[in-house]
Design goal:
seven-stranded mixed sheet; alpha+beta; 28% helix
Length: 833
C-alpha cells in the first residue's frame, strides 16, 4: 500500500483514485482545504505539494504518493504562525474567511520563491484564488507585510483565540417564552440578566430586543438575533456593549445565530445590524450599567431585570471604545480552525443529495429509484414529490441520485427577449416587490414645457450570488426535536419554514448558524428543509451541500431591471421634470437626492421568467445606475461639468459633504471632459476619463469617482476608484472600510462583466468557469474616505457603498470614449463596441 506525507506525517493511501480533497477532508479530517467549485476555478482547495500550490479537487491522491502535502493546518505546525498567517490576521484581510486557507498557502509559496514580490507578482501568484467578499486590496497589503515580517522589519504577535464553550440547549427557545420563565441560569450560571424588550414597527417586530448576562467574574455574554456572515457585525456589537458597560471588549462575548437562545429577528439584511440590533444591545448594556451601579456584587446572584424605561446612553461623541479601529484576532481563519457548515460532522452522519428537475418548473411524472436502492449503503427517501438519497460519502450520494430514472413534464422554453417579456408581464406584487408610485408636481406638464427633453432606457442583467461556500445544511432529529445547522441570513424564518413543513412546533426546532462562506442575500434556507427531510427519512444525521451547478441552477438570481427615464431642462440648464419607471428590479434606492419641482417615481413588478430574490443592495444598484447615468446625460446636454451640475441640484447637505470629500481625494478638475486628449502609451494612444455618481440608501450617503483608460481598440480598464461614505456614527472604522473595499470589488463585477446567460430559459453554463466574477487582476486602485458623524445614528455599511460604482464607471467610459453605455454589464467582453 502506498503512502503520502501530510503535514509531516505518513498517511496510508487506501483508494488511489480518490480526489486528494476528499482524502484530506473525509479521510484525515483536515478541513482547511475547502470545496468550492469542483473544477479548479476558485482556488479554495489549494494545498502545497512539495512546496508548490496544487488544486486538491483536480488531483488524485495516488498522484501525490510519496510526496509531501501541506495543508493550512500544517503550515506552521509545529511552531509560531507563518508570517503570511500573522499578516493576514493583522490586516484583517478576510471577511467570511472561506477562501483564506487557500490564499495563505499560495502566498507562502510565493514568498518562499520571492522574498520581496511586487504587486504584479502577488496578483499573478494569487489570481487563481477567488475571494467573493472582495478583500483583494487587503490581501495584497498582507502579503507585503508578511514579506516585511520575514525580513524582521515588522511583527504581529497573535495569540490563538479561545474557542467558546457551546451553550446548553434550553428547555424551550427563549424568544418563545416570557423572561421570567426562561432557564437563564441553568444555561449561563449565576449572575445578572438584563433584557431590553422587543420593539415593533409596522406589522412585525423590528427587533426582538436584546439580552445580556454578566457573570460574577465580570464576563459578559450578549445575545442578538442578527447573524455574522462575514461583515463582522459581531465586533461592532462587542464594542457597543463594552462601551456602555465600561468593560474591556475582551471580556464581552456575543452570541448570534442560535434560535434557542437569541432574540427573534426577521433577518440580517438591509444593513439593519447597527440600527436595530446595535441599538438594542446598547440599551441592554446601558441598563445593566445603571443596575450594577446600585447593586451589591454578583456572587451567588441570580437576578433578571427587564428594562421598562429608556436608559441613558453614552453619546457617540463621548465614545472611548466604540468608534475606534478594532479587529478580532482571526487566528481561527488563518489556521483552518474555523468550521463552516461544509466542514461539520456528527456521529453517525451520512451525506445527502436531492433529485433535481432538469429545468425550473418541470413537473415530476414518474420515478424509478431501484438502481439507487441497489447501491450498497444508499438509502432513498421519498416525501411527496421530494426524492433524495443518503450515503456514506458525498460522491456516492451524487452517483446514487444520478442513477435514479425520472421522467419530467418540461416547461416551454424561456423568452429570448427578456426586457420585452418583463414589460409585457406586469403583476401587482407584494412585500418588498409591491408596486410603488410617488409624484410631486405635474410631471407630464413640466416635460411638455421643457426646453430640452432627454429620455433613455437602462437595463441591468440577472446576476448570481456565487458564494464561495455553496448552500449547505446539517440536520439531526433527536427524540422528536430537530436541530439544523445552516448558513443563512434568516434563521428564525428558517425555523418557521421547518415548522410548517413538518407540522411541529417551532419550540421543537433549533436553527444554528455557524460561520458562513459568503451569502450576499442568497442563503434563505431551502437546503435546511432538504437536510431535515433526508435526516427524518434516513433516521440519521444528514449533511446536504449543493454542488456549484445546483448553486447556479436552483438558487434565485438578482432581478433584471428595465428602467425608463425622461427628464426636462429649462433654458438655464436646470432640471424641471423627472419621470422614472423601474420594471421588475424593485424600489430600493428610490430616494431622490436632487431638487426637482416635478418628479414621478414608479416601480412596476413583473412576472419574472426566472427565480429572483434578495441580493446585496437589492434594486438600489439598478436604480442608482439609471438615475446617475441620466443625470450625467443631462449635464452633457446642458454643457455643464458633471460635478457642478450635481452640486447645483443636490437637495441633501449630508450627501453634498460626501461628494466634496470624494472629489477632494480624487482630484476632480476641469480637465475631466468627454473626448479628452489621448496620451501615447505602450505603443498606442490611450484616452483617460473620469466619472462620478452619488447615492443615498438605508441611512447612508455615498459618492464614488472612477477613472478609466481606453485604447484605440476599444479596450477599457478601470484604473482607480475613490468612494466616500457616511453612515452616521461609525462604530468600527476598520470593518466599515473593509465592507466598502469589498463591496466596491463586488460592484465592479456587476458593472463590468457579470451576467447570467440563458439558453431557452436555462442557465447556459452553470459553473464558475462559465460565470466570471472579479479576481485579483481585475481590481484597480481603491481609495476609501470614511466620514464619521457622531451626531447621527449609526447606519449599516454592507450595501450602500456598492450602488454608485456602476454609474461612476459608465460615466467615466463616456468621458474617455464618447460612448454612452446604458446596459449592465458595461463591458462583457472587455471592450466598447
Amino acid at each position: 500500500m502506498s503512502s503520502v506525507i501530510v503535514n509531516s506525517k505518513t498517511c496510508e493511501i487506501g483508494e488511489p483514485g480518490q480526489p486528494l480533497l476528499v482524502f484530506l477532508r473525509s479521510g484525515l479530517g483536515l478541513t482547511g482545504a475547502k470545496p468550492g467549485c469542483g473544477e479548479g476555478a476558485c482556488g479554495a482547495c489549494t494545498v502545497l505539494v512539495d512546496g508548490a500550490p496544487v488544486l486538491a479537487c483536480q488531483v488524485r491522491v495516488g498522484d501525490v504518493a510519496g510526496r509531501s502535502v501541506t495543508t493550512i493546518e500544517g503550515l506552521a505546525d509545529p511552531g509560531p504562525l507563518h508570517p503570511v498567517q500573522r499578516a493576514l490576521a493583522a490586516e484583517r484581510a478576510f471577511q467570511c474567511g472561506y477562501c483564506t486557507p487557500g490564499i495563505a498557502l499560495r502566498a507562502a509559496a510565493l514568498l518562499a520563491a520571492d522574498a520581496d514580490p511586487g504587486d504584479d507578482q502577488i496578483v499573478a501568484a494569487l489570481n487563481p484564488c477567488l475571494c467573493r467578499c472582495g478583500c483583494y486590496p487587503r490581501i495584497t497589503r498582507a502579503v507585503h507585510r508578511a514579506a516585511a515580517m520575514s525580513r524582521g522589519d515588522d511583527e504581529a504577535a497573535l495569540e490563538p483565540e479561545p474557542v467558546p464553550a457551546a451553550l446548553v440547549r434550553p428547555s424551550r427557545p427563549w424568544d418563545l417564552s416570557e423572561p421570567g420563565e426562561r432557564d437563564w441560569f441553568g444555561v449561563l450560571g449565576d449572575g445578572l440578566v438584563v433584557v431590553w424588550p422587543a420593539e415593533s414597527s409596522g406589522t412585525w417586530p423590528r427587533t426582538g430586543g436584546a439580552w445580556l448576562h454578566i457573570a460574577p467574574s465580570g464576563a459578559v455574554t450578549a445575545f442578538t438575533g442578527k447573524v455574522d456572515i462575514g461583515q463582522d457585525n459581531q465586533t461592532a456589537f462587542r464594542l457597543l456593549v463594552a462601551e456602555e458597560l465600561r468593560a474591556d471588549p475582551a471580556d464581552v462575548r456575543v452570541v448570534q445565530g442560535d434560535t434557542d437562545v437569541c432574540p427573534y429577528d426577521p433577518g440580517t439584511f438591509g444593513s439593519r445590524s447597527m440600527p436595530d440590533a446595535g441599538e438594542a444591545l446598547r440599551r441592554a448594556a446601558a441598563g445593566a450599567r445603571q443596575i450594577l451601579a446600585s447593586r451589591p456584587p454578583l456572587a451567588g446572584t441570580r437576578r433578571v431585570e427587564v428594562l421598562a424605561a429608556e436608559p441613558e446612553l453614552t453619546s457617540p461623541a463621548d465614545w472611548t471604545t466604540a468608534g475606534r479601529p478594532h479587529a478580532a484576532p482571526g487566528t481561527d481563519v488563518v489556521t483552518g480552525v474555523r468550521r463552516f457548515v461544509s466542514d461539520m460532522e456528527l456521529p453517525g452522519m451520512v451525506h445527502g443529495a436531492v433529485l433535481r428537475a432538469p429545468a425550473p418548473a418541470a413537473v415530476l411524472r414518474t420515478v424509478d429509484s431501484g438502481p439507487a436502492e441497489a447501491m450498497p449503503g444508499v438509502t432513498v427517501v421519498r416525501d411527496g414529490d421530494f426524492v433524495g438519497v443518503t450515503a456514506g460519502d458525498p460522491l456516492t450520494a451524487r452517483r446514487a441520485v444520478a442513477a435514479i430514472k425520472a421522467d419530467w413534464d418540461m416547461p416551454a422554453p424561456g423568452p429570448a427577449d427578456l426586457a420585452g417579456y418583463l414589460r409585457s408581464h406586469p403583476v401587482a406584487g407584494d412585500g418588498w416587490q409591491r408596486a410603488v408610485r410617488s409624484e410631486t408636481g405635474d410631471t407630464e406638464a413640466a416635460l411638455a414645457a421643457a426646453v430640452t427633453q432627454v429620455k433613455a432606457t437602462y437595463t441591468t442583467a440577472y446576476l448570481a450570488h456565487v458564494p464561495l461556500e455553496t448552500r449547505a445544511a446539517l440536520a439531526e432529529w433527536d427524540d422528536g426535536r430537530l436541530t439544523v445547522w445552516t448558513g443563512t441570513n434568516v434563521p428564525f424564518a428558517v425555523r418557521a419554514r421547518l415548522s410548517q413543513t413538518f407540522g411541529i412546533s417551532e419550540a421543537a426546532i433549533r436553527v444554528i448558524v455557524p460561520p458562513v462562506g459568503g451569502g450576499f442575500g442568497g442563503k434563505h434556507g431551502a437546503e435546511a428543509v432538504e437536510a431535515a427531510r433526508l435526516a427524518r427519512g434516513a433516521g440519521r444525521p444528514v449533511k446536504v451541500r449543493w454542488s456549484r451547478a445546483e448553486e447556479f441552477q436552483r438558487g434565485y438570481l438578482r432581478p433584471m431591471a428595465v428602467i425608463d427615464v425622461r427628464a426636462g431642462l429649462d433654458a438655464a440648464g436646470s432640471i424641471t421634470a423627472w419621470d422614472f419607471l423601474d420594471i421588475n428590479a424593485g424600489a430600493s434606492g428610490f430616494a431622490f437626492p436632487y431638487a426637482v419641482p416635478n418628479r414621478r417615481l414608479r416601480y412596476q413588478p413583473a412576472d419574472s421568467p426566472h427565480a429572483q430574490g434578495p441580493y446585496r443592495a437589492l434594486a438600489a444598484t439598478a436604480n442608482t445606475f439609471a438615475r446617475e447615468s441620466h443625470i450625467d446625460e443631462l449635464a452633457y446636454v446642458a454643457h455643464a461639468d458633471p460635478l457642478r451640475f450635481r452640486l447645483r441640484h443636490l437637495d441633501d447637505e449630508r450627501l453634498a459633504a460626501v461628494v466634496e470629500a470624494a472629489v477632494g481625494r480624487f482630484g476632480w478638475g476641469p480637465g475631466w471632459r468627454p473626448a479628452g486628449r489621448p496620451a501615447w502609451r505602450d505603443g498606442c494612444w490611450v484616452w483617460r476619463g473620469a466619472g462620478m455618481a452619488v447615492g443615498l440608501e438605508k441611512g447612508g450617503r455615498v459618492a464614488t469617482c472612477a477613472e478609466v483608460s481606453a485604447d484605440g481598440t476599444g479596450h477599457v480598464s478601470v484604473t482607480r476608484i475613490v468612494t466616500a461614505y457616511e453612515c452616521g456614527a461609525v462604530v468600527n472604522p476598520d470593518a466599515v472600510i473593509s465592507q466598502i473595499e469589498g463591496g466596491t470589488v463586488m460592484a465592479l463585477g456587476g458593472a463590468l462583466f457579470e451576467t447570467v446567460v440563458f439558453d431557452q430559459g436555462r442557465i447556459a453554463r452553470p459553473s464558475l468557469a462559465g460565470y466570471r466574477v472579479p479576481r485579483f487582476a481585475d481590481v484597480p486602485e481603491i481609495d476609501v474616505v470614511l466620514l464619521d458623524r457622531p451626531d447621527l445614528p449609526s447606519a449599516g455599511a454592507g450595501e450602500t457603498p456598492l450602488i454608485a460604482v456602476a454609474p461612476a464607471v459608465a460615466n467615466a467610459i463616456f468621458a474617455a470614449t464618447g460612448r454612452r453605455l446604458r446596459s449592465l454589464p458595461l463591458l462583457p467582453d472587455g471592450a466598447v463596441r
